[in-house]
Specification:
about 140 residues, alpha+beta, Aminopeptidase, 7-stranded mixed sheet, 3 helices, GNAT family N-acetyltransferase, acyltransferase activity
């Protein structure tokens, strides 16, 4: 059994580093906006241990239309807990919080290999792609909530 609940950014950062950028210093896993009042950080816990984290930032994207939108960034699931629906549950929990606050659009960028995962969660691929040197080809994904 696991629990989903709000967390502080400082709880998410070590997990982000371990999963997303293990070869980088911890400082690089801190994102601009982590400490903003309107940023939402959510954690998945298994037996009181943080095994997943997702962060939602109030951020517009110039390629998308809509007045109220948030960005999903820093989705990190401990490799020992993958394929247990942790990521999906974190995103759905976050969407529910955003919908309660009348947020209309959730967006993220992801590498091409992750497209099926986000499509399964109801995100749609846009025509906007770009090459991020270290991460490779990135695709802008969007979901109306």
């Amino acid at each position: 059994m696991f629990e989903i609940k709000p967390i502080q950014s400082m709880e998410a950062i070590p997990l982000r580093q371990m999963v997303i950028s293990p070869d980088s210093p911890l400082e690089e896993s801190k994102y601009i906006g982590d400490e903003n009042e309107d940023t939402i950080h959510i954690g998945a816990f298994a037996k009181d241990q943080l095994v997943g984290a997702a962060s939602f930032y109030k951020e517009q994207h110039d390629k998308l239309s809509g007045k109220s939108m948030y960005r999903l960034k820093g989705l990190a699931i401990d490799p020992g807990h993958r394929n247990e629906l942790r990521g999906q549950t974190l995103i759905l929990f976050g969407e529910n919080l955003l919908a309660q606050n009348k947020i209309e659009v959730l967006w993220c960028t992801t590498k091409v290999s992750n497209l099926p995962y986000y499509q399964h969660l109801g995100f749609h691929e846009t025509e906007h792609t770009y090459n991020d040197g270290e991460k490779g080809l990135q695709v802008l994904m969007v979901k109306h909530i």
